[in-house]
Amino acid sequence: MSPIDPFLPRRRIAYFSMEIALRPEMHTYSGGLGVLAGDTARSCADLELPMVFLTLASREGYLRQEIDGDGRQVDHADPWDLADWATPLDAMVAVRIEGRAVWVRPWLYVLTCPVGHAIPVLLLDTRLEHNDPVDRAISDRLYGGDEAYRLKQEILLGVGGMRILHALGFDIETYHLNEGHAALLAAGLLREHRHPSDRPSDGALRYDADRVRERCVFTTHTPVEAGHDRFDYEDAERLLGDFLPLDQMKLLAGPDRLNMTRLALNLSGYVNGVAMRHAETARRMFPGYGIRAVTNGVHAPTWTHPAFVRLFQEIAPDWGHDPEELLGADQLSDDAVWTAHQEAKGDLLAEIQPLAGVAMRPDVPVIAFARRMTGYKRPDLLFTDLERLRAINRTHPFQVVMAGKAHPRDEGGKALIAEIHAHMRSLAGDIPMAFLPNYDMTLAKKLVAGADVWLNTPLPPYEASGTSGMKAALNGVLNLSVLDGWWIEAWVEGVTGWAIGQDDQRHEDDAQDLYDKLERTVLPLYHADRGRWIRMMKDSISKIGSRFNSQRMMRRYASEAYLR
Ligand SMILES: *Cc1c(COP(=O)(O)O)cnc(C)c1O
């Protein structure tokens, strides 16, 4: 008997994602998209949804970030041992890439939730002796290499993934495409549905796309046109061969370049953005498609500090399964909440000391900013006016901790990391500051629980949703954020957190607004009115934790997208 057998009978939905954050030791993710996919899988296990997950093995990981003496990011591979966590299955399929047969082997990782339900995750691996050495590396490095490498990975995920499911004996009704990376899966399904009429006119689709649309759900995460995967048709033809006739592909994926988002949009019967504002933006970007909104959520038990787990357990024993019960968290006692918070903060400060050599104080607020380091997230906004920062700190002391990786090819993001280090050095004598290297799930858990204020300064409308602020809120860490993504839905000024600036088109003044809000509202409240601060912590847990969780998110996908 194969270890996959027990899972075969009840799996009707397959979820495809280029990255999934299953556990910190498995380097199969880079950031938000993967963590969301991981939280999705964890909630599916909790809720016993009949799903199977597919991703790449990513044996070389995404990026281990080192910061050198000059504050520059140094990129390293981040290998991990697949055999420590997953079991190879004895099915294999071949996918034709660049004219060669590339063999793919699935590894099984079983994700088990606290009450014992389990979800199968298939990790696709091409590191096989049968393969040409070039092809062995296809599944190795997440988002590594050039455009051709990326397209090969997408062929592996979409086409290879579909064939693997078939070879293993899964009977899948619905395919969920997490972002456009797996769009070729939908194109592969199309091949199975040639149009019934014999000779449709020229320039028409010779396949029955409606049949495919019934089976595909597509979640888009990218609010800017330039952020979508696009490939030259020359590359596509060279790598994919006659997978789908070029004229047919152009009808579905755009006339000039193979646009994976277009392909997924045209072949999915249910399409959604990841927050209400993001869905509006996506509808403007892609008119004519009915794009819904399912706002992201986080897996509450994964992101809640053990000290708060104990508190929640007392007032709502089922909160892990039904995080709506966290509504009752506003009834917790002030002392209990503050004690739990100081314990989480102590854990973070104990981490900062050895990593950054900075001793931070437990009685001074910690402002945290942890994001992918890239232009639109504006990680340097806080440093717009160093004199102003020093002045604020003199009347209302604070401390700053930051973390985040820049994509290896994002030179702008890397420059931002170096700049931030330079700013931190010049402020060092006045304001305690630390940049913690190699932001990952483990570090994220410490940061989202141990900070006092969770800062977010993206340039709207580029933040599709954001999820780290939801993790912070679960731990009573207060959000201070620009109005974009999920925060527009969760923000109640002075109750669940604070806004930076207005919800409008002008963002030149965001730095001023940030300083004003810190100086007049946030820091004075922390230092002078602890009672109201704790009131906000409790409102944040109860109003945000009860809604922005992946249990609610998956119940919505199940009822609206999967059971159409
Ligand atoms: C939650 C998380 C993210 C996503 O956070 P954003 O709010 O979207 O910036 C990224 N990386 C890690 C490691 C996380 O845990």
UniProtKB/TrEMBL annotation:
Keywords: Carbohydrate metabolism, Glycosyltransferase, Pyridoxal phosphate, Transferase. It comes from the Bacteria. It catalyses: [(1->4)-alpha-D-glucosyl](n) + phosphate = [(1->4)-alpha-D-glucosyl](n-1) + alpha-D-glucose 1-phosphate. Its cofactor is pyridoxal 5'-phosphate. One of its GO terms (molecular function) is glycogen phosphorylase activity. Belongs to the glycogen phosphorylase family. This is glycogen phosphorylase. It comes from Aurantimonas marianensis.
